[in-house]
Amino acid sequence: MTPQAAQDVQTKFSSCLTNENSCWDGFSHSKEDKKVRAELSSVLANVTQKCEKALGMITSKPKAEMANGLKTTNRKLKEDDDNNEVGAEWSSTDRLLFQLSSLTPPDVVVAADGSGNYTTVSAAVSAAPSYSSKRYVIRIKAGVYRENVEVPKEKSNIMFLGDGRKTTIITGSRSVAGGSTTYQSATVAVEGQGFLARDITFQNTAGPSKYQAVALRVESDFAAFYKCGMLGYQNTLYVHSNRQFFRNCFIVGTIDFIVGNAAAVFQDCDIRARRPNPGQTVTITALRVGVILLKTPGL
């Protein structure tokens, strides 16, 4: 098996375990949920055992070698017009979308003031083609969009293109204290493969007393975020599973505010801790697999 094939298979089985854990966590709140959880325990334990055995049979490069490979192989991070590196493992067309996004005609426009094709991001995502191999660009004009958005697995190769991190904001306030699970609390949840986003902020305003409250949940394989913001408190950025890349992003939270089981690379990101409630301790990451942090020399 080639190293790339091993990484692909490893990612799939790791995601399988993560999805199982998310399902398991969903049955941990009410008394009825806990009854279902008890009944599922033997079935899920069997699935876990098989996935773990499969993972144990796969050999792949250590994470440190993968990070070095980004610098030394032909999969180097490419540069934008300011000589800043912006992405890895994506096509030349996708890189150009990041570099020349202001010159890229979108497929549809979302505008809260009614000047676009849609007034909500959810409506634009719903109307996007399913299982598309072609990049579908949704431009989201400056404004505050108060909604919860899901990009389901059938909506592949979608790009969110905002007018700026400080001016295009999708915000919500779901939380575990408010009755959601951690998984369901996400303001924006991305599952469709190959998702891209630039110049946009994902926010959860539930606050430090509402426990887990996700601003952005990402399950998309080879998802990339450039000049984006992720603002919240506990569990702000849920890098749920698969492979993800974050460049020049602004990530803010209190407890475990970067959490998940993804193979995630953060390059030149501004990661800041907010003041938590009295008695709470700030923890930046809570990950089962790991994170690679990269900084461009000279910056």
Automatic annotation (TrEMBL):
Top-level class of the enzyme under EC nomenclature: hydrolase
Keyword field contains Hydrolase: yes
Known pathway: Glycan metabolism; pectin degradation; 2-dehydro-3-deoxy-D-gluconate from pectin: step 1/5
GO molecular function: pectinesterase activity
Pfam families noted in UniProt: Pectinesterase
EC number: 3.1.1.11
InterPro entries referenced in this protein's UniProt entry, alphabetically: Invertase/methylesterase_inhib, Pectin_lyas_fold, Pectin_lyase_fold/virulence, Pectinesterase_cat, Pectinesterase_Tyr_AS
GO biological process: cell wall modification; pectin catabolic process
Protein name (Swiss-Prot/TrEMBL): Pectinesterase
Organism, as annotated: Salix viminalis (Common osier)
Taxonomic lineage from the root: Eukaryota, Viridiplantae, Streptophyta, Embryophyta, Tracheophyta
